[in-house]
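Our collaborator T.R. sent over the components below with a one-line note: 'Predict the complex.' Nothing else. No constraints on interfaces, no templates requested, no preferences about which chain binds where. So this is a plain run: every listed entity goes in together, and whatever single assembly comes back becomes the starting point for the next discussion.
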Amino acid sequence: MTSLIDADEAGFFGDHGGRFVPPHLETPIAEVAAAYAEARQDPQFQAEYEALLADYVGRPSPLFLAEGLTRHLGGARIYLKREDLNHTGAHKINHCLGEGLLAKRMGKKKLIAETGAGQHGVALATAAALLGLECEIHMGSIDIAKQRPNVVRMELLGAKVVSVESGGRCLKDAVDSAFSVFASDYHDTFFAIGSVVGPHPYPSMIRDFQSIVGREARGQILAKEGRLPDVLVASVGGGSNALGLFTAFLEDESVRIFGVEPGGKDLDVVGEHAATMTLGTPGTLHGMRTLVLQDTDGETWPVHSIASGLDYPAVGPQHAFLKDVGRAEYVSVSDAETLEAFQLLCRTEGIIPALESSHALAHAARLAPTMGADEIIVVNLSGRGDKDIDYVAEKLGR
Ligand SMILES: *Cc1c(COP(=O)(O)O)cnc(C)c1O
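Returned assembly:
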């Protein structure tokens, strides 16, 4: 049987993954793979990484019993893994510090990346400032308009923000743009992908850097409840916060695992959702084979989500694999359900969640009432929602 966790030598999880890059990128990406394979085994690298997670990010993040939310929904007890409390307000700092440390180890001077909601850009600019690296962030112009405060943050942190005007002017186009600049300047540059996507080794590497989330959560729930949770729920854009939580539980068969993707406004209309796991077909995008929202001729669909961190027309290959083998289940929730869940957490717990994380909350809110009071759900609260309040106010007509 193949492992649920580790890719094979070529970076495949079952039928998905691999490294599909143009010949001139084969060497630079293979260099990253070789450097990471060494760093992964190096206790000094790991110790340096863990020290930053503790003293800079503020880990471990709490596992919080949401009593108000639990009471309101009636049913299973809901715990929140508080990645929103990390420095910079989301889980992404976990992998950005890992990538920054690896870039330094490889002697690179500059980090380059794409960003959607701006969360990866802010987290990477933060890591770059901390580690003394230059930083260049590519961002779709629609996202720039929607996420102005994050653009200001990146610039304050010393990053150069490049506005991408091609295609749908969102995350996918920013990835293309960042890749093409990297291709022309890889000697001094490290390409810091923002999720468990892209060519091997990125899906495995980003997952490893995020897996601290689930290792902590496992220890915390065992300490608090003396047993494993019944259900895990996390939002899935590329899938890094989800795999961060899931990895430590993949081999625990009693734990049901749900990834929640953006159903947007209408699942039946192309361009009105980003439900890759539900409606995607096998294809190749951004250096990996995975499920892709695409036409029969391979043209990727435009995507939409109320949460711009989730509007990506593909998904990390390990998620496609976990779906194939039936280890994880993938569902979608709509923009409207997401807004409800966002407001519900604000009122019941005094926590303003990111719209991305509100997708996971919305599914937990569906599940909890169908479960017993002796059952446990752990939700990955991947980020805080301060970045979203202007957009939410507009949606609510305030
Ligand atoms: C970016 C982001 C996501 C989606 O990215 P994944 O790689 O799927 O985790 C989810 N939540 C927050 C808060 C984000 O910033």
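Summary for T.R.: The chain has two domains: 12-54+91-202, 58-89+211-396.
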